[in-house]
Every structure is written in structure tokens, then in C-alpha cells.
UniProtKB/TrEMBL annotation:
Its EC number is 2.7.2.8. The record marks 36, 258 as: Transition state stabilizer. Residues 32-276 form the Aspartate/glutamate/uridylate kinase domain. It comes from Acidisoma silvae. Keywords: Amino-acid biosynthesis, Arginine biosynthesis, ATP-binding, Cytoplasm, Kinase, Nucleotide-binding, Transferase. GO terms for cellular component: cytoplasm. NCBIfam families: argB. This is Acetylglutamate kinase.
Length: 300
């Protein structure tokens, strides 16, 4: 093959990739996409760099990504160094006064700046904030009820300074996106009394996506999506199917709050919430720029 025809072949290949992406670029032009980036995915440098490039690429093609990150494993590492024991109830970290200080330091400090740097290094401008900034997440103490299996009596569990979003003020997000910047949000909220609250990152992402009336919520995790009893990926789930999956014990553990937060997002007006594999390079682009997507979409 001559040099000229090889040059045309390569160019045709590249052009057809662009042509295939065009309908999706049109579909998502100007759309807000909230991406929840979990702490597990951050451990791998190659994947982390790929995540940063994907978010920067979304911005560069006229989409408005808003990143909400976790950092559970990073908090664990710091607590271990400080010799502080940590316990979880139904996937939530019981957070006392000493611990909430560490949680804020790690989430709103090192992790937030790490995620911001990933995106900025990829050529877009990201700004790291937490739920306290601009009054973004007003939180209230979360109370969890559990039923004693022996007595069948329900009682409230005290999780300490674990919060849930009471009110979301999106002005700071609009101020950033309006200036061409990408908000990167740590899930730490502020109570009416100024108290710092530790908020599960999936819950924060869902509440922010609903408040923004986002086009899509993408939850990056460490499985391909929601799997059925045969461990097969379920590409779509209705709210009724989610409820059935939990009732039958097919959806368990950390996947329960994840699907519930997706349901809350779609009920709150988000068009589609997807759980997808953050261990796959370019997971966000694969989900958004292909017809079927790759993960499990929870439909309203
Ligand atoms: N039906 C299911 N499909 C997929 N994963 C499930 C299912 N039921 C339970 N899981 C578990 O949920 C986990 C994801 O939740 P979690 O560990 O809390 O995620 P993250 O740390 O990303 O927030 C998976 O690693 C898997 O072990
Ligand atoms: C209340 C609560 O459990 N908060 C979480 C916040 C971080 C988080 O959710 O991080 P991942 O998404 O990486 O799991 C925690 O303390 O670990």
C-alpha cells in the first residue's frame, strides 16, 4: 500500500469514529451529567488519568460534567495511620467527633484536590469544593431505624455525625459551570448549627443530580452494573424491578443504597441514572457515546 493510501485509510478510520459520536454529541449538547467517582476507582493511576481525560473531554465537547467523589478507602487509610477504629452500619461509617474531622480533612482536602488535579492535568479547569461551600449541601443528622430480630421492636441507631442532604443550593455549581469550570464536590455537608456532616457520596451525588435536574447520573463502581441471580448484567431496571431485586435478595450490600439513590434521582427528575464499571477505561464515554451504553440504567 502506498504512503498516500495508508494516510487516507487512517484518516477515514478517525473520521468514522467522529461521525459515529456525532448523534450523541448532539443529544448531550449543553446537558448536565453528574458523575459519582468512588474511592476504589481512584487507587489505580492509569484509570484515574483516564477518568480525568474523560471528564475534560466531556467539557470540551460542550457537555457540563459535575463530579461528586467519594473516598471511603482513603479515609480508612488515614484512620489506620491515626490508630482510629472505624465501624460501618448498613454501608455507612459511624462517625464520631474526632472522625468527622478526619473525614473532612481527607474528602474535602487531599482527595478533592487529587480529583481536581486529574481533570486539570487533562486540559480542563476543575474547581474543588465541598458541600459547605456556597451552602451547597445543607445537611441534617441521619437517623436509621433498625428492627431487633428477637423482640421485633424498632429503635433508632445513632450514627454520630452522618448526615443526609436537607437542602441543595445549586448557585455555586451554576456560578462555576457558567464560568466554564468543572465543579468537583466532596460529600461533606453543613448543619443549621454549623456542624460538619459526613454524607455518603452516592446520596450526595443523587441529591445534587436531582437538584440540577441533570440529564444523567453516572455512578462509577467496581462491578459491571447490577447483576441478576446468574451474575448476568441487567442493562435496564425499572423502579419496580429494583424493589423486586432487593426483596428477593438479588441486590444486596452496598448495591442497595446505590440503586436506591439512583431511584431517588430519577424520581427527582433525572432522565436516567446508570451504575457502571469504573474499572474500565473510558467508562463514562462508553456509557454516553454508544446506543445501549455499558452499565445498568435505572429508569423512572
Ligand atoms: N445484584 C448485584 N449486582 C452487582 N453488585 C452487587 C449486587 N448485589 C450486591 N452487590 C455488591 O455491591 C458492590 C458495590 O457496592 P459498594 O461496594 O458500596 O460500591 P462503591 O464502593 O463503588 O460505592 C459490588 O462490589 C457487589 O459486591
Ligand atoms: C456516611 C459515610 O459512610 N460516608 C462515606 C463518605 C465517602 C464515600 O461515600 O466514599 P465511597 O464512595 O468511596 O465509598 C465514608 O465515610 O466512607
Amino acid at each position: 500500500m502506498s504512503f498516500a493510501s495508508e494516510r487516507y485509510r487512517l484518516a477515514a478510520e478517525q473520521a468514522s469514529t467522529v461521525a459515529r459520536a456525532l448523534p450523541y454529541l448532539r443529544r448531550y449538547a449543553g446537558a448536565t451529567i453528574v458523575v459519582k467517582y468512588g474511592g476504589h476507582a481512584m487507587g489505580d493511576d492509569v484509570l484515574a488519568a483516564s477518568f480525568g481525560r474523560d471528564i475534560a473531554a466531556l467539557k470540551q465537547v460542550g457537555i457540563n460534567p459535575v463530579v461528586v467523589h467519594g473516598g471511603g478507602p482513603q479515609i480508612n487509610t488515614m484512620l489506620k495511620r491515626l490508630a482510629i477504629q472505624s465501624t460501618f452500619v448498613e454501608g455507612l461509617r459511624v462517625t464520631d467527633e474526632a472522625m468527622v474531622e478526619v473525614v473532612e480533612m481527607v474528602l474535602a482536602g487531599s482527595v478533592n484536590k487529587q480529583v481536581t488535579s486529574l481533570i486539570t492535568r487533562a486540559g480542563a479547569l476543575a474547581v474543588g469544593i465541598c458541600g459547605k461551600d456556597g451552602g451547597l449541601i445543607r445537611a441534617r443528622k441521619l437517623t436509621r431505624m433498625i428492627r431487633d430480630p428477637d423482640s421485633n421492636i424498632e429503635r433508632a441507631l445513632d450514627l454520630g455525625f452522618v448526615g443526609e442532604p436537607a437542602q441543595i443550593d445549586i448557585r455555586v455549581i451554576h456560578a462555576l459551570t457558567g464560568a466554564g469550570l468543572i465543579p468537583v464536590i466532596a460529600p461533606v455537608g453543613i448543619g443549621d448549627d454549623g456542624q460538619t456532616y459526613n454524607i455518603n457520596a452516592d446520596t450526595a451525588a443523587s441529591a445534587i443530580a436531582a437538584a440540577l435536574q441533570a440529564h444523567r447520573l453516572l455512578m462509577l463502581t467496581d462491578v459491571p452494573g447490577v447483576l441478576d441471580a446468574n451474575k448476568e448484567l441487567m442493562p435496564e431496571l425499572t423502579v419496580a424491578q429494583v424493589e423486586a431485586g432487593i426483596a428477593s435478595g438479588v441486590i444486596t450490600g452496598g448495591m442497595i443504597p446505590k440503586v436506591e439513590n439512583c431511584v431517588a434521582a430519577v424520581r427527582g427528575g433525572v432522565k436516567g441514572a446508570t451504575i457502571l464499571d469504573g474499572r474500565v477505561e473510558h467508562a463514562c464515554l462508553l456509557e454516553l457515546f454508544t446506543e445501549g451504553g455499558v452499565g445498568t440504567m435505572i429508569l423512572g
